[in-house]
Amino acid sequence: MAETGTFTLNNKEYSVPTGLFINNEFVPSVSGKKFTTVYPATGKPIIDLYEADKDDVEKAVDAAEHAFKTVWKKTSGSERGRLMYKLADLMERDLQLLAELEALDNGKAVSVASSTDLPAAIGHIRYFAGWADKIQGKSINLGENFAGQIQIDPFGVVGQIIPWNFPLLMLAWKWGPALACGNTIVMKTSEKTPLSALKVCELAVEAGFPAGVINVLSGFGPTAGQAIAEHPRIKKVAFTGSTGVGRKIMVAAAQSNLKKVSLELGGKSPNIIFPDADIDAAIRWASIGIFFNHGQCCCAGSRLFIHEDIYDEFIEKFKAHAATIKIGDPLQPETGHGPLVDNLQFERVLSYIQKGKDEGATVVFGGERHGTEGYFVPPTLFSNVTDDMTIVKEEIFGPVVCALKFKTEEEVIERANNTEYGLAAAVHTNDLKLANRVSRALEAGTVWVNCYNMFFNQMPFGGYKTSGIGRENSEYALLEYSQVKSVTISLQ
After folding, report:
1. In angstroms, rounded to a whole number, what is the distance separating the alpha carbons of residues 8 and 44?
2. pLDDT tens digit string along 191-229?
3. Is residue 264 annotated as part of the catalytic site, yes or no?
4. Residue 298 known to be catalytic
5. How many CB atoms lie within 10 A of CB 487?
6. Is the dihedral of CA 174, 178, 179, 180 positive or negative?
7. pTM of this prediction?
8. Coil, strand, or helix at residue 343?
9. Which of 264, 395, 443, 480 is catalytic?
10. Catalytic residue among 201, 297, 298, 299
C-alpha cells in the first residue's frame, strides 16, 4: 500500500507521498521512524515523512542492483532517452504544483521556482535524454593481427546525495547524466526539503521507468547519507553540499570500496566591478549574484570587489536597488525574497551578521531579522570590511554580501584568489581584453563576464580547490557516470 498524506496550506489541500521510494513503491522505513518537514515562512510543521536509515539504503541498493542486472543494462540508449523525455514532459505538465512544493519546503518564492528552478530542471532532463543514445565507444586500428575496441560502460548502482537549496534542480543535475549513461540510482534528498522529489518519483512511475531504476530516500546525512557513501555495492557517489561533509564522503568512499566520487561543494565567490563597467547593469547582476535564492547558493557572489573610483556611487545605488526587493510569503506571486530554509540556517546567518558587527564592519542595509515569524533575513550589505574578517573568509550561505574596495587589476586578482574556495567568480567591465585577462587569472571553475548565475546545460559547472571534484552539466558530466573498457581482439 502506497504511503501518502495530505496537508492544507493557504486554503489549498496538497497530497504527497510520505514513504521511501524503493522499487517504484512508496514504503515505510524499516524502523518506522518519521521526521517532520517545516514551512519556513512560519516555522510550523507541514507533514511527517518516513525517515530512511542504513537498512533502507540496503533495500534500495538491492532494488537498484536487481534492476540494473535484469532490465536497465539491457535497455537501449534510445529507450532510456524516451523515458527521460516523458518524465520531463510530465514535470512540465505539473510545473505549478512542483513549484509550490519547492516554495513550501525550501522557502523560495514560488514565482522564482516556477520561472527559473523548474524550467531549468526540466531542460536539464531533456538535455541528457538527448545524450542517452549518443554515448559511443571507438574502434582502434591495432595493425593486421589485432583489433581494438574502447567501450563506455555505466557503473551500475550509483549513490547521489543532494542539498536543500535547489531540491529539484539538484535532482535533475544528478539524475540526468546518471540515467543517460545507463546507471541505476539510490538518492538521498535533504531532510529539510523532501517533498518535491517524492512527487517527481510519482511521475517517474507514470513515465514508465522500470522498478528499481530510481530509488529516493528521505533522511539525514549521518545515517542514510553515510550508508550510501560507504556501501560496498554502490560504485560511484555524487554529493552536493558543504566542503566539510564532502571530506567525510571522500573518507567513506576510500574506506569502503574506493568508489568514484564527484563533489560540488562550497564557495566564497568574488564579484569584481571595474570602473568602466555599466554600473546599473552591474548592480542588477550583483543582486542576482548574492540575493538569488536568499543567498543560499554555493556560488553566491558574496565578496563584492568594487573599484575605488566608483565605490561610493555603487553602494548608494545598490542600497536603493535592494530596497525594491519584496520580502514576504513565498507562496504570494509578488514575493521576490522568502525565508531561509529552517531555524538552524536562520540562526547561522544571524550569527555571522553579528560576527561582522563585532569585528567592526558597517551594516549599510539589512542586518537584522525581518518580521517576528518564520526565518526571514533581509538582503544585507557590509562595508568597511577587510579581507581577514570572518564574514569575508567563511561561507555564510545567506543574503549577506561584503563590499571591498580595490585599486588595481593585479591587486584584485590576488585578493580574489586568496581563498580556499574556487567555485565561481565574475568580472564586470566593457574592456574585452581586461575581461579575458582577469577571467583567465581567476582560480574558479566558472567565471561570468558582465552577468552572474547564468547556467546553461551545455556549460560544465564545478569547482577548483576545495570547491569540489568533477563537473556537473554538459557532456563533461557523462564522464562522472561512466567507465572505460579496452577490448583487444586477436585476429590471428
Report:
1. 12
2. 999 999 999 999 999 999 999 999 999 999 999 999 999
3. yes
4. yes
5. 12
6. positive
7. 0.97
8. helix
9. 264
10. 298
